[in-house]
Amino acid sequence: MEESVSATLQEVDGIPSHTPSDDEVPETTTDDIPTESSSQTDLGDYQLIRDRERRAPKPNPKYSLLSYADLIYTALVVACDVQNAEPVSFSDAMSSKNCNNWKTAMDEEMTSLKDNKTWVLVPRPEKARIIDCKWIYKFKEGISKSDPIKFKARLVAKGFSQKEGLDYNEIFSPVVKFKTIRLMLAVTAFYDLELEQMDVKTAFLNGDLDETILMHQPPGYVDKLHKDYVCKLKKSLYGLKQAPRQWYKRFDSFVSNIGFVRSKYDVCMYFAHLDTIPIFLLLYVDDMLLISKSMPLILDLKSKLSSEFDMKDLGIAKKILGMEIVRNRSKHEIRLHQTSYLKKVCIKFDMLNCKPVHIPLAAHFILSKAQSPKNESEKIKMESVPYLNAIGSVMYAMVSTRPDLSFSISLLSRFMSNPGCEHWMTSKMALKISKFIC
After folding, report:
1. In terms of Cα–Cα distance, which of 142, 158, 156, 155 is closest to 111?
2. Ranked by mean pLDDT, which of 25-29, 65-69, 139-143, 157-161 comes out on top?
3. How far apart, in Å, are the Cα atoms of 379 and each of 73, 335, 372, 421?
4. pTM for this structure?
């Protein structure tokens, strides 16, 4: 019995149980041969579960904290952003290969500001608060894919230097709700109404200021005869904290004077009954949708708006707030989608070629706070992961046209303050879901 137990233990430890032949016996020294007493003690106290050699865990690199693929796609995103980067300052714009295009865009912006009488040059008062300004440069895509990319330059004030109670008071400005847009588009499709779109050029420049604000002269456009003068703002300017509110107050006052009534349920939806025919106006900052059964009423409203503000007539509504509008009047259908937007999101996070999934999140995706980083080294590693950007990008599609993303985004949003590796890997599933029907 003892011999069988000893043989079994020898097999467990990798020692063959049969007696080796003379050819198989290696040369050994007396030091290598264990004594009988020590061998019996070791075997007698041996426990397989406790004493067996442990296998070193080898985590799958695919699910490591920062896998090689994650680092590569992050580098590619950064490289693409650098290659197609928009200038961040006036000097960058003037030294870029598109300097002529940016100069033209800035000239157009300055012309709009002068025509609108946004400011007047005054001598700089002593001990006066002077806020700074800067140029913002953006590539702006056309409504359709065939339209060329436009170069847009915007002069903005550095509103972060303003102080509450001194430079501004109220800053809240409402916008039309997404559900109101969807509801009115459904009404438009059902009753076969006309759907037109307009855009306000330099909308924030139309608001009147209640406070006295002084600003430095714009970079590149300093008056040569009055270099020490400053701009005293008469109209609101982009970047000022009160600019959105002042624009909304100005617009609300105008449309109220021409007979429109503000809705009780959405303060940015206006309606009126002209010649017993209803007409609706939806406002989202500077984007407008005009809806009515009568096209002459819409044209009359366009004329009134153009006489008061610098407007751009976009004709039949095709795209608003990133939502593309596809209409089939014969079938009374209007379809909204964000294919172009979601494609850009997938490209940004290197998920364009991923396999789309059809369900929000599978049952095996169980997330908890315990999966968040627990030490500083893990937190530092996760700082390079664009978790917040990914969730925010998909969230905009969720509130616009993709309610099927609500469950996954609401779950992932719980860990935005301290996301971990598992949270990041699951966020990629949300991107795969967004790619479905994209």
Report:
1. 155
2. 157-161
3. 20, 43, 9, 10
4. 0.68
* Distance between CA atoms of residues 419 and 245, nearest Å: 35
Distance, CA of 9 to chain centre: 63
- Average the pLDDT over 347-353 and give the result: 82
What gap in Å lies between CA 261 and CA 251, rounded to an integer? 12
What the block records as the tokens of 87 is: 């200038």
Cα–Cα distances (Å) from 220 to 108, 110, 305, in that order, read 14, 11, 33
DSSP bridge partners of 283: 288
* Residue 166 confidence (pLDDT): 64
And the tokens for 366?
């169980």
Q: State the average pLDDT over residues 376-394.
A: 85
Split at pLDDT 50, 70, 90, the class of 17 is very low
User: Do 340 and 324 meet the contact criterion of CB atoms below 8 Å apart?
Assistant: yes
394 sits in the region (left: phi over 0; alpha: psi -120 to 50; else beta) called: alpha
Strand ranges, E, within 174-302: 194-200, 214-215, 230-233, 261-262, 269-274, 277-284, 287-292
State the pLDDT confidence band at 257, using cuts at 50, 70 and 90.
very high
pLDDT at residue 289 above 50? yes
Given a contact cutoff of 8 angstroms between Cβ atoms, the answer to whether 40 and 352 are in contact is no
| Alpha helices for 192-259 (secondary structure H) | 243-257
Collapse the DSSP code of 295 into the 3-class scheme (helix H, G, I; strand E, B; otherwise coil) and give the result.
Answer: helix
The model's confidence at residue 180, banded by pLDDT at 50, 70 and 90, is very high
Q: Please say whether the beta carbons of 287 and 321 come within 8 A.
A: yes
Rounded (5°) CA angle 263-269-274: 80
Tokens read off for 422: 């598992």
Taking CA atoms, 302 is separated from 241, 249, 294, in Å, by: 29, 19, 13
Give the whole-angstrom CA distance, residue 249 versus residue 218. Answer: 27
Query: Which residues does 437 contact at the CB level (< 8 Å), separation at least 6?
Result: 337
Distance CA(258)–CA(251), nearest Å, equals: 11
Nearest Cα residue to 141 out of 336, 327, 324, 306? 324
Q: Measuring CA to CA, which residue among 279, 284, 269, 291 is closest to residue 185?
A: 291
Amino acid at 348: K
If you average pLDDT over residues 248-275, what whole number do you get?
A: 91
